[in-house]
Amino acid sequence: MEKQPRLLASQLLLKNSLFEVSLNRVLLTWKEIATKKKRVSGGIHHPFKVAGPRSAAAALAWIASLCRVNWMAHNLASEFFFMSWLTFFITSHGTSHGVSVSEILAVRELDVDCGTKDDGRWQKMPQKSTEAYPYAFTVSYVERAWQHRWRCSDVTFHCLEGALCQQWVQTIREQLTALTSRPKHLLVYINPYGGKQQGERIYEQKVAPLFTLASISTHVIVTEHANHARDHLRTEAELKKYDGVVCVGGDGMFSEMVHGLVSRTQRDNGVDQNSPEEKLVPCTLRIGIIPAGSTDCICYATVGINDPVTSALHIIVGDAQPMDVCSVHHNNTFLRYSVSLLGYGFYGDMLADSERKRWMGPARYDFSGFKTFLTHHYYEGTVSFLPATDILGTPRDKTRCRAGCFICQHNGQLYSEDAPEICETDPDVSDSEYKGGWRVIRGKFLAINAASMSCACPRSPKGLSPAAHLADGTTDLILVRKCSRFNFLRHLLRHTSKYDQFDMTFVEVHRVRRFRFTPRYCQSDSELDLRENGKRLFSQICRDHPACSCSPAYSSWNCDGEILPHAAIEVGCVTTPYNLLCKYTVHSESIQTPSLFPHFFTL
Question: Residue 590: beta bridge partners?
């Protein structure tokens, strides 16, 4: 890596010790100047602080040891920052400290005599420092903590001259201004009813002060009813005034924003959303989420932790993470967009039951999940899918999606070239057919899931499909065939353990471009609306299966926490770039349906 020229270099006072402070376009570094009686600076937390190795070879060996415990993969946001960090350590001697310029939040000049209260915290300067070094400035930056958590930390430097202090402040601000990926104006929606109903408190106490510190202006709207954010984005919002849209809520609130923003963009550009073959027009606005819901699956899968401060800091520094956004159609009619999970059978039944128990709060998911497990309903139908061929990675290769994921870049580019799909037949599968590259499977299923991200959450750290990629233009189709309750319980428990949840005879997973599902009792174009024809379906089942104890023939599709009105759907994957603000880019992959849709997460 080419060495960056210094912009500034000075000897400044920090905690009663003299430091050599240097700034270039990549790093702000400070190294204590050795004296006869060395003083140790304490009480300061740094993004990285170690005794530097005495040679480049020792530095490489030391860094390799860190990689063996996987620290690097989880804590470095980009290859560029890694190289900057590596260069810094190879050239360091003694105790050194540093922070990437891209992760500096703000810089402000202090009045040493009376302290400062810019961020609501008084900072009284030591008396000895103020006598010899009467001028000071504070740099606020991102500090990486344990388990993907980010925090805002401060370091204060003291200068001999006021002109030098102002020069440092001005130069750092110029470097921050040059970071064009950072948002300056945000539209914020707060859901006051989601999760534990703490959305407003979380924003006011934890997020708003950080946005103010980073000089980000915000327009805040507290939603008053379901789909308030969606409808406002579709019609009233003046989107040209903002660099991004942020929601404070759960997965449902995020889904509202996606629907409103994507629908508005397609309408403004004359795109027919009801046409499965239409490619979505990318939106220039970025989308972010501050977790304040019940499960916050999307935030956990893209950022690695459900922490409002961490998500806010990712938004401030302009972090970007490609994601798949999907659209769902039925009979050439648009139904919904989705960004994480489409689930039929177990997850659909669980959601349908939990919706009748909203008075229970988040506990309703545990209750409904246990009840659905006991009922153990299976559903007959036909699943057909177009496998993703000539791609890197498989659903079982244990390769996790990370920031700058090579598999996402390779597969996304491959798909954008509209490469023809070819599928080899599998003679071992007796209940499957191949038609024009499509594979057709008929059977009885406890669950049919399509995961476009890992769908990880605190209770299931690996998620439904641990190796799912956020921006590769595919979705992982998981089929769980009829089995005993005990075996199904084994499968569910493996989501919370280190074992492979797909290593079971009744479970199969495929990485697909498109898929469709048709229930057994829905073989014609006149498919019945689930909400209007439940009684007729019920009687038909009982006539065909008198000993079935009135087991239903249809489940419901769980689309990111919303129930779809149709059981027969088609799903297709079309890559269209969108921007997400959470790790800040949504790579909008519209999974579409001709007659029916996460770095990893960067940490």
Answer: 574
